[in-house]
Amino acid sequence: MTQTQILKKVLKYIKKYNIYMILSIIAAFVTVISTLYLPILTGDAVDMIIGKGNVNLKGIKDLIIKMLIVIVITAISQWIMNISNNKMAYSIIQDMRNKAFERLQLLPLKYIDGHPHGDVVSRVVADVDQFSEGLLMGFTQLFTGIITIVGTLIFMFSINVKIAIVVVVITPVSLFVASFIAKKTYNMFKLQSETRGEQTAFIDEIVGNQKVVQAFSREDESIETFDEINNRLEKCSLKAIFFSSLTNPSTRFVNSLVYTGVGLTGALAAMRGSMSVGQLTVFLSYANQYTKPFNEISGVITELQNALACAGRVFELIEEEPRIPDSKAAVVLDNVKGRIKLTDVCFSYVPEKKLIENFNLTVEPGQRVAIVGPTGCGKTTLINLLMRFYDVNSGRIEVDGNDIRNVTRASLRTNFGMVLQETWLKAGTIRDNICMGKPDATDEEMIAAAKAAHAHGFIKRLSNGYDTVIGEDGGSLSQGQKQLLCIARIMLSLPPMLILDEATSSIDTRTEIKIQQAFSRMMKGRTSFIVAHRLSTIKESDIILVMKDGNVIEQGKHEELLAKGGFYSNLYNSQFAK
After folding, report:
1. Residue 161: enclosing H or E segment and its boundaries?
2. Are strands 543-548 and 551-556 parallel, antiparallel or unpaired?
3. How far is residue 167's CA from residue 432's CA, in Å, rounded to a whole number?
4. What is the CA radius of gyration of the chain?
5. What is the three-class DSSP state of 16?
6. Can you name the CATH fold of 91-318?
7. pLDDT digits (tens, 9 = 90+) for 353-412
8. What is the pTM of this model?
9. N or C, fewer C-beta in 10 Å, the chain?
10. CATH architecture of 424-494
11. d(Cα 38, Cα 77) in Å, to the nearest integer?
12. Rounded to whole angstroms, how far apart are CA atoms 116 and 104?
């Protein structure tokens, strides 16, 4: 994505806040005009005090009053300009963050699975912050800088054309220097932003898995990897800052040449009598004000390189291809019976690596389907396809005769209750987490669900019971307690179809037996899919699918599969061999 393309996208966001931009430009115009008028009053005051006994005190008093009025007008207009710029910049940032987060909700899971989470977080947080700083600086200094340059030129030409020409001739050198450095710094700032995202991703990975790092004594290796990334970030940051910092002294040197040229030609003109000392004072003040915006604008341009580099990464996220939206003709699943049919289903995460091929299955309402097999055989993938986290490459999956691609995702997922091996709890109260699937549940319903999940006992022992606030991902709760809360959540909502993917993997055997009994009661009349490695928990299933390398190699009831003496029999006997 080029700078021009990024700039065009930024302008689209700015367009929404044109009223603030117009107000800012008007305020900037008033600020500049009043600032440029002040030196004229100062020059007039100088001309009133030249010569012994030649001081016009009354005139000076009137000029001081005028100066005070001009200063007040300047202060008010600057305040209005800053308010407008702040409102415009932070509103744009708010819009961008909203767009980025909204797009995250619409992205297919393959994007989330294929990108480091820390890098995604860095784009939404750090990169947007960097962009906001550059944007705010641009709004604040760009308008006033341009108007100041134009205004001072007009005033200078009105006072003395020859000296004004000297200023104009030297000016392009300053612009050339700023432009040259700006081109060099963009790629450096882009690399800096990417490396910062890599660092954030690594920190997120290590902090989230600190127990594993310490368990395998990988602290030193983690520090070495972090140091390597940090050193690269230091080098690219130093290069970016070094080149960007050249802009200001380079333009200041050119500006000093302008000021020197004005001083010399102005002094000669004053000696010849073609301009007064007061006019020379005004001209020197204008020359200084004329060159000052070039320093500011060059600084803005440098900061904008960083801002545009960061904005580019944010826009890449915002414009990432979303998942296929629900079709306009998509139906809403209602009064679901739970008949599921898979016909010639083929799926792979990457084209060159086949996973599920020509998979066929029919599940009648209320049946329990157990899915077993070695790690990586496609058990969880099948769940992902049922929930439409991924779409099939070919074939079809039907629920009550409806192809799930022609059903709204929300209604499909509402009719499935899912408990995964990987628990997820949000920051909030225990009550909030249990009632996530049924926000209007009564306390009695919630407590009944918690009791059915055997979570009520430990919840009551917490400091505030069901109103206890837990942190992100369950805070200090044990893995087993978190899993019990996830089970209670499903016990409360009771959808017509269930998916239990190693739902009791972190629970002690005694509690597991009780929960399996609760599951048995809950699954009556509900179509259920159970993924389990402990085969003792699935003996009562109506259908057991034995998967290997993405294919169903055996299918039937527990006793039938044992009698065959095949792959399932070997799996079962390996767990219960005497």
Report:
1. helix 161-208
2. antiparallel
3. 68
4. 36
5. coil
6. ABC transporter transmembrane region fold (1.20.1560)
7. 778 888 888 889 888 888 888 877 778 888 888 888 888 889 999 998 899 989 898 888
8. 0.63
9. C
10. 3-Layer(aba) Sandwich (3.40)
11. 15
12. 13
